[in-house]
Specification:
Blueprint lengths: L2 H13 L10 E4 L3 E4 L3 E3 L27 E3 L18 E3 L12 H19 L14 E6 L2 E5 L4 E3 L1 H13 L4 H17 L17
Parallel strand pairs: 4-5
Antiparallel strand pairs: 1-2, 2-3, 6-7, 7-8
Length: 210
């Protein structure tokens, strides 16, 4: 995201009491002490989040980039193959301007899926395929209660307005009016009660004996 979103997120997290170390790597963890390139600290809980990596298919090593993403052309056709296509997080449309390809976002995958469907129909009807071009409608992220950042092509903002924008958009992305109404009521109730539930779906599991 933008430098504005990064700096605002940093400030929001600091206000929430989060300790932040930039340009720092974890070197070791023994269950009690986390050793980093900046400092060591005691912790019984360590959560590692490092993105995703594709699961390569055998005999496709030449079609993968450094991140194990499948290299495709502008039509989402896998490098070295004429009838194999790849889209979403696992795929990477490389160009001279950007060897990393598009970011691994749901918006990219959704547009690629819709575009590929049209190209497959074009192939079936013996018509020319069209190159994929991502339409960046913006990116947003929520950080906490009344805290979010929004990067639109024409505007960048943060804070409570960004948070309500994030909530409204996610509400509108739900399938039907009933779902939107139920979620809106639940969110409103949680907001008024300052509910900080984990939002986890936990079910009782009956284990078979023996």
């Amino acid at each position: 995201m933008s430098d504005n979103a990064s700096s605002k997120s940093y400030k929001f997290l600091k206000k929430l009491g989060v300790n932040i170390w930039l340009k720092t790597t974890v070197k070791d963890y023994d269950g009690s002490i986390a050793v980093t390139s900046a400092t060591n600290f005691n912790t019984k809980t360590l959560i590692w989040s490092a993105g995703v990596m594709g699961s390569p298919i055998s005999n496709m090593d030449k079609s993968l980039n450094r991140g194990k993403r499948v290299i495709t052309d502008q039509y989402n056709k896998v490098k070295g193959y004429e009838d194999v296509f790849a889209i979403g997080d696992v795929a990477c449309i490389e160009s001279e301007a950007d060897k990393r390809g598009y970011l691994m976002l749901a918006s990219v995958a959704g547009q690629q899926g819709e575009h590929l469907a049209k190209n497959l129909n074009a192939i079936a009807n013996k018509k020319k395929m069209k190159a994929f071009v991502y339409n960046d409608r913006g990116t947003m992220a929520t950080i906490g209660r009344n805290k979010a950042v929004v990067d639109l092509p024409f505007l960048k903002f943060s804070g409570i307005i960004a948070w309500f924008t994030w909530m409204f958009l996610h509400l509108m992305l739900l399938v039907d009016f009933r779902n939107r109404l139920v979620v809106l009521l639940n969110w409103s109730w949680s907001y008024l009660r300052n509910d900080k539930g984990l939002r986890l779906v936990i079910r009782k599991v009956k284990r078979k004996e023996g």
